[in-house]
Amino acid sequence: MNKTxxxxxxxxxxxxxxxxxxxxxxxxxxxxxxxSSVKLLAExxxxxxxxxxxxxxxxxxxxxxxxLAGTNVKILSGMEGLCDIAALPQTDIVLNxxxxxxxxxxxxxxxxxxxxxxxxxxETLVAGGELVMSAAAAKGVKIYPxxxxxxxxxxxxxxxxxxxxxxxxxxxxxxxxFGKSYDDLRSxxxxxxxxxxxxxxxxxxxxxxxxxxxxxxEFIEAKWLFDLTxxxxxxxxxxxxVVHSAVEYNDYSVIAxxxxxxxxxxIQYALLYPDRVSCPTGRLSLTDxxxxxxxxxxxxxxxxxSSAIEAIKRGGAYPCLVNSANEExxxxxxxxxxxFIEIGEIVSSVLEKFPSSDINSYEDVMKADxxxxxxxxxxxx
Length: 381
Hints:
The protein is an alpha/beta fold. The chain has helices spanning 13-25, 38-48, 61-67, 78-86, 104-112, 122-139, 148-157, 190-193, 203-211, 213-225, 264-272, 286-289, 303-314, 318-334, 340-353, 362-380; strands at residues 4-8, 28-34, 52-55, 74-77, 93-96, 116-119, 143-145, 165-172, 233-237, 243-249, 254-258. Helices cover 47% and strands 15% of the residues. A seven-stranded parallel beta sheet has the order 4-3-2-1-5-6-7, sandwiched between helices. Strands 9-8-10-11 form a four-stranded mixed beta sheet, covered by helices on one side. Strand 3, helix 3 and strand 4 (74-77) form a beta-alpha-beta unit. Helix 2 crosses helix 3 (61-67) and helix 14 runs antiparallel to helix 15 (340-353). The chain is globular and about 55 Å long.
């Protein structure tokens, strides 16, 4: 295992688990980056001895320098530092697990530098899917999905002809409010929304799971990752999070990938592909679960999900617009500025507010992103 890895978002849930995987298998860490968690980033740097670290929040740069005084670690900051780390010549694979639109430019930078990518940043493909996949194809760069659902689909495609795929079945836990009516959601508290039944994640993705926006974003990602039409993607609510997703082939055979709900499995598969070795997680016992259930999602109650699906059907800037509106709305909810139910209402309103427009460049993405955020802030203020 002589791969070298740079981790963007090393102090988050994905990043810390990735470091566990790297430690177990002796992967060399060339660089680490975090948003603002100075003490944890410094602790990671002292333990894993990367050549570079980056703190995205430039105001924390002096604090990080103080924490790492006396070490040989080179310290960077801001978007420039993030992009520098993404393009290091000594890195074999870049794990991008930052949260939000921040992840798009480092992904494009890594691709331009010819780096393979383990992708856990949803917004990269949601907002700039066509740009990213075209650039990766032109550079011969491989993008390995880290999301458990996309990793499952990727695994189910191994050894089969891609041309014989009929559809993919994207599973969803349903979040903490599965079975609730639209009226039930009016009284949801922040504490309830942050209480996910199966996964331990950051606050933004946990809220996205509660609104089912997370599954909408994954729907869009799947379209780009596997070159699908929206009609080839089916969402199925699977409460136990054991079947991580499945693929149906032209003969109607369905192949699924199963495992305990632990992100270290897809993280390891992305970093070590095509090798399969022991993973620092538990084994799956189907008899312990006893039964597995499946249901259709409620697209009327969970407006974020239906809006994301409609956005990718329309194409152009719409996926970026709904994603950015959602980011802004989730932030407002976490700061007690709006109610839970208003997140979906705001996201769905974007589809009617903005006319169709194309995405041909990174600048186009940023323009759509700003327009959506400005719109949401105007609704809240």
